[in-house]
Design a protein that fits this description.
Layout (H helix, E strand, L loop, with lengths): L1 H8 L3 E7 L6 H10 L8 H7 L6 H12 L5 H17 L2 E8 L2 H4 L5 H15 L5 E9 L4 H11 L8 E5 L11 H9 L11 E4 L5 H11 L3 E4 L7 H9 L4 E3 L1 H6 L2 H5 L6 H6 L4 E3 L4 H4 L3 H10 L5 H17 L5 H16 L1
Parallel strand pairs: 1-2, 2-3, 3-4, 5-6, 6-7, 7-8
Helix pairs in contact: 1-16, 1-17, 5-7, 8-9, 17-18
Length: 347
């Protein structure tokens, strides 16, 4: 395992499921709170302790949205993103398709231009470090359809800075079909890539397999974020594998949010997903809350596999290749990244 972990650290990879707000370490929360004269009802040590255990997704979301309150000015969003990009580069991420939640900020009075300009500027600077950043605008599923449609109108002037759209936040009680009109509208407004197909949705994490089916049928998503509860439906697994619908799996998140304990007896599910031929990618989700960035998530995933050293090596390469195959790229761009991966594999 030590050799495999060392190996994965030097392989180029894409991260396709990371929330920029979820990369805010407690130290940055307190730094920005002090700068913006925001009083926090807990100490740094208490904030660090709170992140060690979550009862469920909602427990995490409560802390996540509370931390968002310290993001006020354009420079705050820039600093947040740059801290993530520096860590991403150290994890050998060469492409990051990063989620951001505009409604979590505009609902507090922060303008769309403030957050978008800060994030975009950081993304451009990340390119100087060898990392290509793409921004995926997510709708909060526990907000109304009307609010989401209003967010689309705010986003349209910045369409050239947005690579795709997503759906996140509380899954239970908020099925994908609720956002059918929203996703269709975003596509017509040029927010979903050159062919209107760059759409994703969180599904099959807290909710069951039916949410995965809805996300594909109602929203027309290109890949599923999380999606691990497809394992309860063998037919769905076959369809996902045959149609090559990628899953952006987040091992540490699934553990910390008790998803594995509630639905899989506490066991990681990477091995079963791979055995069923699914296009699995490894990601960090909200790394500042879940105890590790992408390489730590690879370590968690690999430690659950009963493979010899050579098999682990091949699995690492396969998972990294999947990340480029599943990315919002042209075929030519995908091949360029895969060529670099194959070169690194031979070193």
């Amino acid at each position: 395992m030590v050799d495999a972990c060392s190996f994965i650290s030097r392989l180029p990879k894409a991260e396709l499921h990371v929330h920029i707000e979820g990369t805010m370490e407690p130290e940055l929360v307190f730094k920005l709170a002090q700068k913006n004269n925001i009083e926090l009802p807990f100490s740094l040590e208490e904030a660090q302790s709170k992140r060690q255990h979550f009862e469920d997704l909602q427990d995490f979301l409560n802390q996540y949205y509370f931390a968002c309150k310290v993001l006020v000015e354009e420079e705050d969003f820039y600093e947040l993103a740059m801290e993530y990009f520096k860590r991403a580069v150290s994890n050998n991420i060469v492409l990051a398709e990063v989620f951001f939640d505009p409604q979590a900020h505009t609902s507090r009075g922060v303008s769309f231009s403030t957050l978008m300009n800060g994030l975009h500027r950081a993304g451009k600077d990340a390119e100087q470090m060898g990392l290509k950043a793409k921004w995926v605008m997510c709708f909060l599923r526990d907000f109304s359809e009307e609010d989401a449609l209003n967010t689309i109108e705010q986003a349209v002037p910045y369409a050239d800075k947005i690579s795709g759209i997503g759906l996140d936040s509380a899954e239970l009680g908020n099925p994908p079909r609720k956002f059918t009109r929203v996703f269709a509208e975003a596509s017509t407004k040029g927010l979903c890539g050159p062919e209107g197909k760059w759409k994703v949705a969180h599904a099959g994490e807290e909710g069951d397999a039916s949410n995965i089916i809805e996300a594909i049928h109602c929203l027309g998503v290109a890949r599923i974020d999380h999606g691990i509860r497809c394992l309860s439906d063998p037919y769905l697994c076959r369809v996902l594998a045959d149609c090559k619908v990628p899953l952006t799996v987040c091992p540490n998140s699934n553990d910390r949010l008790q998803v594995l304990n509630r639905h899989f007896g506490g066991k990681q599910v990477i091995s079963e997903l791979l055995e069923k031929g699914l296009c699995v990618t490894i990601n960090s989700d909200d790394p500042a809350f879940f105890g590790g960035y992408i390489n730590e998530n690879f370590k968690t995933a690999l430690s659950s596999l009963e493979l010899n050293e050579e098999e682990l090596r091949k699995t690492c390469v396969k998972l990294c290749r999947n990340s480029f195959e599943a990315a919002f790229l042209t075929e030519e761009e995908k091949q360029s990244y895969i060529n670099a991966l194959e070169t690194a594999d031979k070193i």
